[in-house]
TrEMBL record:
Taxon lineage: Eukaryota, Metazoa, Chordata, Craniata, Vertebrata
Ranges annotated as spanning the membrane: 20-39
UniProt xrefs under InterPro entries: CS_Sulfotransferase (IPR052654), P-loop_NTPase (IPR027417)
Keyword annotations of the record: Membrane, Transmembrane, Transmembrane helix
Pfam families noted in UniProt: Sulfotransfer_3
BP GO terms, sorted: hexose biosynthetic process
Molecular functions (GO terms): N-acetylgalactosamine 4-sulfate 6-O-sulfotransferase activity
Protein name according to UniProt: Carbohydrate sulfotransferase 15
Natural source organism: Hymenochirus boettgeri
Signal peptide: none
Amino acid sequence: MCFAGWRCLHWCRNLGRRTLLCLVFALVIATFVLTSYVLSGGKQDHTFHFFPSKLKEPNLSFKKSQEYKQDKTDQTIMTNITTPHLQTSSSGHGLLWVSRRIPDIEDLRQFEPHIFSIIPQEFLQFSRNPCWYQEYKGERDPYSNNAYLLYAKRFRTIFEEMRQSFWKRLQAIGGHHYRLRCLPYFYIIGQPKCGTTDLYNRLLVHPSVRFSAIKEPQWWTRKRVGILRQKETPKSRFPLENYLDLFDLAAQEIQGLHSEMKRKEDGNIDSPIIGEASASTMWDNDAWIYIYDNVTNTEPPHLTLDFIHVLQPNAKFIVMLRDPVERLYSDYLYFSVANKSVEDFHDKVNDSVQMFESCLRTSPLRSCVYNTTLNNLLPLLSTWELTSAKSVKYFTM
Ligand SMILES: *[C@@H]1O[C@H](CO)[C@@H](O)[C@H](O)[C@H]1NC(C)=O
Ligand SMILES: *[C@@H]1O[C@H](CO)[C@@H](O)[C@H](O)[C@H]1NC(C)=O
Ligand SMILES: *[C@@H]1O[C@H](CO)[C@@H](O)[C@H](O)[C@H]1NC(C)=O
Ligand SMILES: *[C@@H]1O[C@H](CO)[C@@H](O)[C@H](O)[C@H]1NC(C)=O
Ligand SMILES: *[C@@H]1O[C@H](CO)[C@@H](O)[C@H](O)[C@H]1NC(C)=O
Ligand SMILES: *[C@@H]1O[C@H](CO)[C@@H](O)[C@H](O)[C@H]1NC(C)=O
């Protein structure tokens, strides 16, 4: 059996067909990403504003983070998203798109009680970022136990910088100390080799954008579960606080602006927006087997993005994609270690396709997509990408 992404490789000489196919392919992947996860749920204006609007009058009371019109059409988008299932019938294989209910807070809380106890359901109004004040009861050195620092000493300078301004910013109210905590306003996500780093570098110099202290924290997909590198088994989990620490410089700045605003009673201050650029947040669900205890099912009950969706429903996402064949070859050239050649590339792609097809002969599509063992064994491509390719076959042939 052959599939579209694979044929695309063979048709590289046939420019017309290739361009057409690849275009459709890219379109389907985009549709796949967007329809299968209408993350912000069509609730509000989805345009990404690089220039945050002027701050209003300081208001310390909370704003409902899920402030949106509960109209019927939106509700449909929110509660049901489509996921592809492979359908086998006498007439052959076909992709069947079936509904999946988007989990709500009650579905997810039990799996991450600590995270849900820290991140409030309502955020402060004066910043576009999801921020809140949290009492600080910690050590003299706020970062001594941060796992990002413990595992990578190269971050020492960054943490030293954060340490120096930490105590200056801490607010004392009635014998208690408070710090501002923030999650990102937007995420840059996408496949590898699609320009996420380029976009990151450009936005890094934007006067109104601040990024996490580390470029790709990979917290939602890996560190949250204790996975340090892709394909490794979990070690110790990175608590949410370690991740939040990465936004401290931005949070301190926003808090400073807030105090200044209160002092001057002047609402005309530009508040920066916070970004995060862990590309894998889009597709990496390999950790699911470590998250759900007693799971006898072969499919994840919930996905990484479900958690972000419930915790910050208004998060914005910039998705970076590219012509899938070009992407794959670029990925191969960049990540493969030895004996790179066109033939070797061909064999690795073929082997990956064969392994995926072989899984599909015995298991449902969704369990193959989320088969972490299989994903780790594939010499190239991911089950996720293979599924996107597969859906193209059934849409175009
Ligand atoms: C502060 O925000 C709350 C909730 O959004 C609102 O009810 C209240 O009127 C606001 N207060 C001021 C002084 O604007
Ligand atoms: C959502 O999906 C469920 C289960 O497949 C179905 O029963 C329900 O009618 C769907 N709701 C909408 C609004 O499509
Ligand atoms: C998992 O199963 C064991 C034994 O059946 C049970 O004691 C435990 O409570 C279960 N854990 C969860 C989280 O359901
Ligand atoms: C690369 O090719 C050489 C010679 O054919 C072989 O000995 C070696 O094992 C190959 N390395 C890898 C990583 O496949
Ligand atoms: C792909 O690999 C299989 C064996 O795994 C082989 O039979 C087949 O000829 C290969 N196809 C191509 C196009 O190289
Ligand atoms: C997952 O992949 C592994 C390795 O290919 C395979 O042994 C296993 O049966 C697969 N599991 C499912 C549920 O398909």
